[in-house]
Write a structure and sequence with these properties.
Elements lengths: L2 E2 L2 E2 L3 E4 L5 E6 L5 E3 L7 H16 L13 H11 L5 H19 L9 H13 L4 H21 L26 H9 L7 H9 L4 H5 L12 E4 L2 E5 L3 E5 L8 E4 L2 H14 L19 H8 L1 H8 L7 H12 L5 H8 L5 H8 L2 H22 L15
Antiparallel strand pairs: 1-2, 3-4, 4-5, 6-9, 7-8
Length: 391
């Protein structure tokens, strides 16, 4: 009941000059709060106060004034205060926010966001020609920001990012080279100093930033292993920034196959300075290698075109190496360690997506068919050759 003995037990209701009614109440913070909308009748205002009182009694009340912060202000603060983000990740989040989120939703207050508004924002991005992959990245960022607002800061009652499938990406299948193609690609590098660079990317499954950050002391004396101790990221306005690998699991030691050790040792002898902290791979002036130096110096585009895979990206070498490693039937844990992943998700993908595995399944199915057909020939009911469904 909103009234007791003729007096309102919780909150206040007053009639406005317009004839509508305004409800207000004293919140747990000691401040007076007005309902976000006015009501056509006094009973409607009473019912709203009853609902608010119930929320307060369940200790679920959220200060509506805090939800007045704009999406842009809260998201920028979220990025700045997020612990452990690498410089490249901070740059990416800021770029996604500025490019795709704030132009559409930046001025909206958190408390005004709802799922239909999020759905319309996503539809506008796609209609404007933004790729599904980039739209999914922007959506995942906004979802993470609002998850903090709902679950940790308790500014909004729930995360409005509830659009089914909006955060999923379905990128095109990337090419996987054969072992012979990897060595042929390495031999096609216009500058011999990058032959070992290609081989390490494929057979040690190292990321670009991890390879360019290698120093002589990170290579075992017999080139049997390589230690990943850091990585370079290239940031606009700051150039190359050295820091930790992409994840905690990125700090690792990777055993190298014997087939590429001689190439790596030859590279160290010919192209790497003798100091223990000398960079293994360098640009024209002996500085750490930058992406802008790689393509023109190595003739990458011509090499991959001559190889018959003109759309091959450098990162596809790591993809190739991970696929080859999975074909050795290594365990999920071992694949995770080699790839430098904290989560088993990527390792499981490679384990279940190899061509050999697919061929083994196909061979197994063929065996089932043959056994069914073979068994049918001995039957007396004339059903030879008919496949019987197996429950």
């Amino acid at each position: 009941m909103a009234r007791k003995n003729g007096r309102r037990r919780f909150g206040w209701v007053r009639k406005l000059p317009s004839g509508r009614f305004q409800a207000s109440y004293l919140g747990p913070d000691g401040q007076r709060h007005n309902a976000p909308d006015t009501f056509a009748g006094e009973r409607d205002a009473d019912r709203w106060l009853v609902q608010v009182e119930s929320v307060i009694m369940r200790h679920e009340w959220m200060n509506p004034n805090r939800a007045k912060v704009s999406v842009q202000e809260y998201a920028e603060r979220w990025i700045a205060e997020r612990p452990g983000l690498r410089p490249r990740t901070v740059h990416l989040y800021g770029w996604l926010l500025t490019k795709y989120v704030t132009p559409h939703l930046g001025a909206v207050q958190l408390g005004q966001l709802d799922t239909p508004m999020i759905r319309q924002w996503r539809a506008r991005l796609l209609a404007a020609g933004v790729s599904e992959s980039m739209t999914a990245k922007a959506y995942r960022l906004l979802r993470a920001v609002l998850m903090t607002a709902a679950n940790e800061d308790r500014i909004i009652p729930r995360n409005p990012c509830q659009v089914r499938g909006a955060g999923s990406e379905n990128p095109d299948e990337r090419p996987v080279l054969t072992v012979a193609q990897v060595f042929e690609l390495a031999s096609r590098m216009a500058d011999r100093r990058y032959r070992a660079f290609v081989l390490l990317a494929a057979f040690a499954t190292l990321r670009w930033g991890e390879i360019t950050a290698l120093r002589r002391m990170d290579i075992a004396p017999d080139a049997s292993a390589v230690r990943v101790a850091g990585a370079f990221v290239e940031l606009p306005g700051r150039g190359l920034v050295y820091g930790p690998p992409k994840s905690r699991a990125g700090l690792r030691s990777v055993a190298l196959p014997e087939a590429i050790r001689a190439d790596l040792l030859a590279h160290l002898d010919e192209f790497t300075a003798s100091a223990p902290d000398a960079w293994v791979f360098t640009g024209q002036r002996g500085n750490p290698l930058r992406r802008g130096d790689f393509n023109p110096r190595t003739g990458w585009k011509k090499a991959v075109a001559d190889l018959g895979v003109p759309h091959l990206h450098f990162h596809d070498l790591r993809h190739t190496g991970n696929t080859l490693a999975a074909r050795t039937k290594a365990s999920t844990k071992d694949l995770m360690a080699r790839m430098g992943h904290d989560s088993p998700r990527a390792a499981l993908i490679y384990q279940h997506a190899t061509t050999e595995a697919s061929r083994e399944i196909a061979a197994g199915l063929s065996g089932l068919v043959e056994r069914e057909r073979g068994g049918g020939k001995d039957d007396d009911d004339g059903s030879a050759g008919v496949l019987v469904p197996v429950g």
